[in-house]
Amino acid sequence: MEKYFVNLNHAPNELENGLKQLTDEYPVTFKKTQGACDEIIFAQDNRLQCAGGININRTRNGIIDVGYKTKTDAFRSLGHLFGELHTNTTKKYYSETSSFEMLGAMLDCSRNGVMTVENVKAFIRRLSLMGINTLMLYTEDTYEVPGEPFFGYLRGRYTQKELRELDKYADNLGIEMFPCIQTLAHLAQVLQWQDKYRDISQDKLGGYILMVGEEKTYKFIEKIISAACAPFKSKKIHIGMDEAWHLGQEKYLEKYGKVSKTEIMKQHLGKVIEICSRKNLKPMMWGDMFVCHNDKNAEITQEMIEAIPKEVELIYWDYYRTDKENYDKFINLYREMKKEPIIAPGAWNWNYFWSDLKFAYATIKPCMTSARENKLTKAFITTWGEDGMENDIFSTLPAMQYFAELAYNSKPSRELFKSNFYGSCLGNVEKYELANNLDDKFYLKKYFAEETNPSKWLLWDDPLIGLCEPHQEGISFRKHYQGLAEKLKKEIIKGDAYSKRLEFPRQIAKVLAIKCDLRKNLVKAYKSGNKKKIKELISKELNPLMAETRKLWKVHRALWLSTYKPFGLEVVEIRYGGLYNRLESLKDRLNDYVSGSIESVPEFETKLLKFRKTSKKYLYHIGSHKRAATPSAIF
Fold first, then answer.
1. Predicted pLDDT at 391
2. Which domains does the chain have, with CATH numbers?
3. 44-77 pLDDT tens trace
4. I need a surface site. Which of 53, 68, 95, 167 has the fewest CB within 10 A?
């Protein structure tokens, strides 16, 4: 394999350590050998009057001159050149610029899936080659807090040593890391330990919101802020504070009476900003407690403006809109609050097994177009792991590449996107997009941009009860999933670690190809009294489904253990165990019915109802295992 040559004696000192971190995986060498191709010579280019940018020149035979604005840009230029090497396409001259001084990514490490240090490093390498210069690990309780043994207990929390190691590794590649935590809500995993944290919880039974106004609460917040910041060189911190919808209820209401959320936020935020100021920290927070992003008629009041300290930056997160005009509107609303927002689109991996890349692209494009046109200078893309982090976090990489391309190019071509993705991620983006067809709207003649996740609810739908069956709208998914499994099989290359990740969506497709129609066919045979057909379905479909389900469990387990720390896997395995046992119960009950041991299967005689509005154009997004699996209480 050809490699680019970089002479470290002539390379800028700031690039040396980062370049060394790339050599084991990427086509770059520090020795001029027969296998080396062109030599890359890096130099900062003061002519680039922008936040970021690169100039690549092939003006001399065998020499590539790379001018860069920032350290991150130098590594983005390498990603571009690695892509050219793979596609065997070269340009004599290439340049691009970015107006974003902060271009970041946030990886959710709180929803059970805490990435191993080595996998975070793999992400850092890829993000650097995309040109992303900021990384946050979203950690609600999954970081070490000295003196708080129950904080992140049995959850795979990062140690201070691990985070220091990652901070140094990222810095070498031009990426600034800083903590992304919670200081108000989203703390259920901490507050569940009621004997330890009852005094600082707003709710009587654990809950998820801290008790505002209590001295103990602010001592706790100061402790976690100190611990979160300790491993990082950066003075920035993301303090969270989103979605505290029940703020001011329960114990707070009993003690202080009814107080407006805005007033409570003002009081609490002021206290947290005081802590940050004493530590010379630069805080940012989610903005949705001041601006409701779901409200098209949202307005800014003077009370809101006065509640927000000048020291804190606000983040306008928006994952759903596909039209630029709405992003324009909300950017202006933030400006009415005297704030220049940090904008944050999403990679759409939450409540999916594989990132919904089509919908991610459909939302990221208008978001970043609006950000550029409104001259915003800070943006980051988020990942989330709601409902147990069932997804493969690496499936978000195409969305991140697309996000980066739109920061450097207003209209990046498909070919440039594909080439740069290979250069940074060493993979074919079309393979990742093929796996996205787990949730493809194949049943429509024309794609439309709405989130929907049939693979999740088809898998977890109880095989006896069939709660989600009406939401199939009578459509058979069998041919679609059979075809997808075959296509994915062809894309898995032996010895290729990243195409091997496609084994997970392939196995899901194999399971769904059988499961999607099985209950419906069994009920039809049952209602017609055709016991012979039931026996045939047990033999030809239910037995193979049970075997493929066991295989899926093992594939998913292997993927998890190669990506995340082992803590949290128990949640996914409990789900597979439940599904397999229900399949076994289905088999036993049907055999009893066929043999005459029982007279009926009551679940098959119950008329099923839609619990969400759906149509043949819109198979609703069902967001949790619990909702798909059962109408009964499971807690």
1. 97
2. 3-98 (3.30.160.230), 102-182+216-243+282-418 (3.20.20.80), 436-629 (1.20.120.670)
3. 998 888 999 999 999 888 999 999 999 999 999 9
4. 95
Q: How many CB atoms lie within 10 A of CB 217?
A: 22
The answer to whether 82 and 358 have CB atoms below 8 angstroms apart is no
- Identify any residues that bridge with 180 across adjacent strands, giving them in sequence order: 138, 238
Name the residue type at position 605.
E
Residues contacting residue 496 through CB under 8 Å, at least 6 positions apart: none
* Strands 52-60, 93-98: pairing kind: antiparallel
CA distances from 158 to 126, 140, 152, 496, 569 (A): 21, 11, 9, 29, 16
β pairing state of 102-108 and 378-382:
parallel
Sign of the alpha-carbon dihedral angle for 385, 386, 391, 395: negative
**Looking up tokens 């611990």, which residue turns up?**
227
For the chain, list residues with pLDDT below 50.
none
CA dihedral 293, 295, 301, 307 (to 10 degrees): -30
Question: How far does Cα 259 stand from its chain's mean position?
Answer: 35
d(CA 559, CA 392): 8
Q: Going by C-beta distance under 8 Å and a sequence separation of 6 or more, which residues neighbour residue 70?
A: 51, 52, 133, 174
